[in-house]
Amino acid sequence: MSKQRGCENCQAYRKEQLIRLGIEIDQYDYVIALAGNPNTGKSTVFNNLTGLRQHTGNWPGKTVTRAEGGYSYAGKQYKLVDLPGTYSLLSTSKEEEVARDFILFGQPDVTVIVADATRLERNLNLVLQILEITDKAVLCLNLMDEAERNHIKINDRALSKALGIPVVTAVARQKKGMDVLINTIENVATGKYVCKPHRIKSFSPKLDHAVALLVEKLSRKFKNIPNLNWVALRLLEGDQHIIEAVRTEELGQLSENLKSV
Amino acid sequence: MFNNQEIKSDDIISLTNTLRWELGIDFHDKIIESIYADASKIAKQSIQIEDAKNSTILDQKIDNIITSKWFGFPIMFLLLAIVFWITVAGANIPSSWLAAILLDTIHPFLKNIASQIGMPWWLDGVLIDGAYMAFAWVVSVMLPPMAIFFPLFTLLEDLGYLPRVAFNMDSLFRKAGAHGKQALTMSMGFGCNAAGVVATRVIDSPRERLIAIITNNFSLCNGRWPTQILIATIFIGGLVPSHWAGLVSAGAVVSIAVLGIVFSLLVSWGLSKSILRGQASTFSLELPPYRPPRILQTLYTSLIDRTILVLWRAIAFTIPAGIIIWLVANIYIGELSLAEYFIDWANPFAFYFGLNGVILLAYIIAIPANEIVIPTILMLTVINSGLTGIGEGAGVMFELDSVADTKRILTAGGWTLLTAINLMLFSLLHNPCSTTLYTIYKETKSIKWTAISALLPLTIGFIVCFFVTQLWLLFSS
């Protein structure tokens, strides 16, 4: 595949520039979050890129807290944060809170969503939820070998168009697709690729109005939160964690804390 | 609009409440519905399934069998039995190689050097017969089974079998008021309790995690399998004709392991009804697809992550123990060594429990690592019963080449079938080794829970041995 198109030859050439930094990440230019459903291979992608050996295994829920590592590519330093696997960002388990807080308040430059190609529909639920709270994302369609074995064909271009973010196919266990992935991450991080993420269509003008009212108030209280629409929605839904964070004014603090970690 | 005044967070909350009231309660569901609808639409647009006959159906067929009501547990026990059989059988050969190098070659070599440079006898004893021998013992007995067991276990994990074990055991553990994932940490404990305790990190609820930590010790660990197998072979296999001996002694060992699982459930239940009261939390466990394991990578990571880590800790704790064994056997007060004093003092007490002073002293000395229980027992028995011409001298750990020799020593030391059964029970039900206790302390950061983890199984062990002994004496007299 890579022989046919010029730019991919170019990536193969540039792959030489990947330097795995392990945990030595004092300085970095970009922060990359790795999110996704449990057991889709996030930790394997993480290990491939950082050269670390996070324990991987075929059962959901190994990564309980987030793991961090780094790599350097084309002269830029990337800090990679491996988040616990979650099915959604809407309920209240510890894993989901860790993942959600980081994507929302840690303000990663790019969120890489690792998805299981054999269970695309269910994985897309999380993808769409993440796209509600961040603008810059890349979908890494992992386990393409299993999809192929199951005779599932995925039109990655159509998918990319529908989601408004780049889609990279991969077999992380065999290190396939990693070169394209790091290049795509770079494109999104530097703004060469501008994402137009899919957003859930509004179904109620009343809700839009309520959200707008809240966002206006929130934006004066909390200056540097990226996606206040989402915060407003969660407030309206009665998410205790977010309500508490607003009441105690920790919302702004949360964002600062996560950035400094 | 005057936007420049200070906004109070309470205002935002009260505005939220008003707006939420106006919106009604069903809009949350509507958001979720529209996410699901969009996901489904996008998926349909971009997926094309060419052939309905796919391997997820095969996965389901396999799952229907191995998580079924009737076959689930038998298959689980069979697989575990196979793993243990490969571990025990496969470890013998490398164990004897390592023993030949470390014990039979390097040990005399070191002794030789020590005598040539004129090292004082006590220093030579402490360093070479004590510390070095303890180290050599743990490496030759512990390394091979761990190097076989951990990769096999990791292969099962990689293949996707562990979540099925958890699935099978889930309802039992939940009925006991514990977390279903405790089935996973319990399985890890069969390799090493310290590793099992670390694995409890997968359990979110602190209450359920503590239950999993405290009961992990009921999983018979690698260090205790050799004790079980040796004693079962000598005393229980010896009861039946020789062609049945292997099967019967293996059966005895498996019964002890199953008894451990039963205790794990009972104690979990007891804890969740008393000091760790609470509801079992639910969790959704997704059965992942079966994946062909990556053999080489598994070997590598399980060796680095598990084997070397656990071995290193064991060595760090065993070397001081080796020194202590040598000292108690060689420090004399009057006619008797410290070891003999203790044994004579503890014997009357120990007989109530069908044990003897030697076993108790061995379990105190062997707190650092269960592996050294059998050699310590043999060494102490030789000193105590005054046998001559066996072993290598006072306080030197050794293991005899043949099972028959071992039996001769133990019978001379007054062992009976009852002693053997109680030793097997006590080996299952006693305090965790110091490596595990240290890990428990590091994980819980609490002396109280570490103490409970140590004393609870020990107390249970004494109670069980006491009743077994009293009943035995009642029926045999």
How would you sum up this structure, described in words?
The complex is a heterodimer of chains A (261) and B (477). Chain A is α/β, with parallel strands linked by helices and 261 residues long. Chain A folds into 2 domains: 13-190, 3-Layer(aba) Sandwich (Rossmann fold), CATH 3.40.50.300; 205-260, no CATH class. Helix content of chain A is 45%, strand content 17%. Chain A has a 7-stranded mixed β-sheet with strand order 1-3-4-2-5-6-8, sandwiched between helices. Chain B is mainly α. Chain B has helices spanning 9-23, 27-46, 55-66, 72-116, 121-159, 162-175, 182-189, 193-199, 206-215, 225-236, 242-273, 295-330, 338-351, 357-365, 373-385, 403-412, 417-428, 434-444, 447-476; strands at 47-49, 332-333, 336-337. In chain B, strands 2-3 form a two-stranded antiparallel sheet. The radius of gyration of chain B is 28 Å and the shape is elongated. Chain B starts with 8 loop residues before the first helix and ends with a helix. Chains A and B meet through α4, β7, α6, α8 and α9 of A and α1, α2, β1, α5 and α12 of B. β7 of chain A pairs antiparallel with β1 (47-49) of chain B, so a sheet runs across the interface.
Task: List the SSEs and their pairings.
The complex is a heterodimer of chains A (261) and B (477).
Chain A: H1 6-14, E1 19-22, E2 30-36, H2 42-50, E3 67-73, E4 76-82, H3 94-105, E5 110-116, H4 120-133, E6 137-142, H5 144-149, E7 152-154, H6 156-163, E8 167-169, H7 178-190, H8 205-221, H9 228-237, H10 240-247, H11 250-260
Parallel strand pairs in A: 2-4, 2-5, 5-6, 6-8
Antiparallel strand pairs in A: 1-3, 3-4
Helix pairs in contact in A: 3-11, 8-9, 10-11
Chain B: H1 9-23, H2 27-46, E1 47-49, H3 55-66, H4 72-116, H5 121-159, H6 162-175, H7 182-189, H8 193-199, H9 206-215, H10 225-236, H11 242-273, H12 295-330, E2 332-333, E3 336-337, H13 338-351, H14 357-365, H15 373-385, H16 403-412, H17 417-428, H18 434-444, H19 447-476
Antiparallel strand pairs in B: 2-3
